[in-house]
Write a structure and sequence with these properties.
- This protein has 119 residues and is mainly α.
- It has one domain.
- It contains 4 helices and 2 strands.
- A hairpin with a 2-residue loop joins strand 1 and strand 2.
- Helix 1 packs antiparallel against helix 3, helix 1 crosses helix 4 and helix 3 packs antiparallel against helix 4.
- It is elongated, with a radius of gyration of 18 Å.
Length: 119
């Protein structure tokens, strides 16, 4: 796995999938007795005009992308997630079939790869 593969996989299988899953929950809350907060959101969402529903999806996508960007910034060491003055450095590897690939740090920051893929 390359850094590009990792970022691309996170984008499609995590961020984009989260948006899709949230929209599906809004359309039809699952279970016999879904949480009242979800039922209320579902009633609200289903009452929206199509253009407004599209705006909700766009806002969800923006939030998912911003979250992924922030996580990748933290892995890259450009966003602090610790309070102390000495910061941890992250090293991310992927192992498959006995072969290990270094994902981060790499020649390019992961958050930069996300921006390249998103544009």
């Amino acid at each position: 796995m390359t850094s590009d593969d990792f970022v691309s996989g996170l984008k499609t299988q995590c961020a984009d999938a989260a948006v899709h899953d949230c929209v599906e929950l809004l359309k039809a809350p699952p279970g016999r007795r879904p949480e009242q907060s979800l039922v209320s959101l579902s009633v609200w969402y289903r009452g929206l005009a199509p253009a407004d529903k599209a705006n909700v999806v766009a806002a969800l996508q923006m939030a998912a992308d911003a979250t992924l960007f922030g996580v990748l910034c933290a892995i890259d060491g450009v966003r602090a997630i610790e309070d102390q003055s000495t910061k941890s450095k992250f090293r991310l590897t992927a192992t498959c079939n006995g072969s290990t690939s270094l994902i981060a740090p790499g020649p390019e920051d992961l958050h930069a790869l996300l921006q390249t893929d998103s544009l």
